[in-house]
Specification:
It is a single chain. Helix content is about 35%, strand content about 20%. It is built from 14 helices and 14 strands. Strands 10-9-11-1-12-13-2-14 form an 8-stranded mixed sheet, sandwiched between helices. The longest helix has 21 residues.
């Protein structure tokens, strides 16, 4: 057993969904030149209070407005490029676990083919509405009243590979909504194998509709990846938030089915305080879902500050044999035109009480470096994907 295998008993990966770190070199291919989520949020709000993230080194990655980068951050820092084509959450999370796509998931800028819609309508016994790209709040404002009147579910997509179904919970019960999504998932295969089918339930009265937290994702089942190898090696895998949905439950031993940042943070704190050993993988989606897609800069900033406040207690709860990695899956710059994800670098912060910190990990060529790093920590095969950065980190044991 190697030294690295004995140093760390637990690895935490926390994904700050949508908190990008600057445009990727191929951003022009996606219409995302100039996107820079965290930098723009800090500049627009002018007084962003994220002292714990700054202490870890986030301002050492990119200059942030009025944030003084520490000379000796307690964490190590860098960025990761997404090698896979695309800019959706499934692609980003899959690449972190060692799945690098050759072809992007299909997208539908003009809506879904009419034969797909016809097959879906026949399967659910209802007509549908919309069939166009739109934001979630916009689509229910435009079609919500007609949906309530007709009972026809609203079908929409975005720049991402998603087939989304929006319905009022008082019009179509949530169980039936979930069943419709499963029918869609079973239909969308082959050339139409979208990354996710998403149930988008809402409630309220006409003119005052609001989405509920009973959203549910139906992703493709991924190929073999780090989660499978950890499970096979007897390393427990604990998922928090949407992680289990992104991987369709594959390789996951325990799932905290939390649905908002506040509950994700509580689950993370509980995980760090208990005796669970293994791999803890969490997604905090409110930055993206509630604020990035709605161009709400100040809401985005508040969510960052709330996470940062919780991070202080979390850091104090880490043990010497714990390793924390904070990153993101894509960008979602709330100051950028449009409401879709952006093709951006993933920021990379790495911390353990037993590491000296302050190491500049640079711009790394793939998010699969996370898979390679975690594999090295637990002494398992990395599937020949990615490059571990553990050897660049200086441990007090060396």
């Amino acid at each position: 057993m190697s030294k690295l295998q004995t140093e760390f008993k637990r690895v935490f990966i926390v994904v700050l969904d949508g908190v990008g770190a600057g445009e990727l070199p191929d951003a022009s291919e996606y219409g995302d030149v100039g996107a820079d989520t965290l930098v723009h949020v800090a500049a627009a709000t002018r007084n962003l209070q994220i002292p714990n993230l700054v202490t870890l080194g986030i301002a050492n990655i990119r200059p942030l407005h009025e944030q003084m980068a520490p000379i000796h951050p307690i964490g190590s820092y860098g960025r990761m490029a997404e090698k896979s084509p695309g800019k959706d959450s499934v692609t980003g999370h899959w690449e972190m676990m060692g799945i690098v796509l050759v072809r992007p998931f299909p997208t539908y800028p003009n809506g879904f083919p009419l034969d797909i819609i016809a097959r879906f309508e026949a399967a659910i016994g209802r007509k549908t509405l919309a069939n166009c790209p739109a934001s979630g709040t916009e689509i229910i404002e435009r079609f919500g009243a007609e949906h309530v009147r007709t009972g026809s579910p609203i079908i929409y997509t975005s720049a991402d590979s998603v087939f989304q179904i929006a319905a009022h919970e008082a019009v179509i019960p949530i169980g039936e909504q979930y069943a419709m999504c499963q029918l869609a998932r079973d239909m969308l295969v082959g050339e139409h194998a979208v990354g996710r089918v998403i149930c988008r339930p809402f409630e309220g009265e006409v003119g005052h509709f609001r989405r509920t937290e009973r959203r549910k994702d139906y992703p493709l089942t991924p190929p073999e990846n780090l989660l499978d190898r950890l499970h096979a090696a007897g390393v427990g895998v604990h998922a928090i938030g949407k992680i289990s949905e992104f991987f369709n439950g594959r390789g996951i031993d325990r799932w905290d089915h939390t649905t908002n940042n506040s509950d994700h943070i509580i689950a993370l704190q509980h995980a760090v305080e208990n005796s669970f050993a293994g791999f803890i993988f969490a997604n905090l989606e409110d930055f993206d879902m509630l604020y990035g897609h709605r161009n709400d800069v100040f809401g985005f900033a508040r969510a960052l500050e709330e996470y940062d406040h919780s991070l202080g207690l979390f850091l104090n709860s880490l043990r010497p044999d714990d390793l924390l990695i904070i990153t993101n899956d894509h960008g979602n710059d709330p100051t950028f035109p449009g409401t879709d994800h952006n093709r951006e670098f993933a920021h990379l912060l790495v911390y353990s009480p037993s590491l000296k910190g302050g190491v500049n990990l640079g711009d790394r060529s793939s998010c699969s470096d996370l898979s390679a790093t975690v594999s090295q920590v637990f002494g398992i095969s990395n599937g020949s994907v990615g490059t571990s950065f553990m050897n660049k980190l200086v441990s007090i044991h060396n």
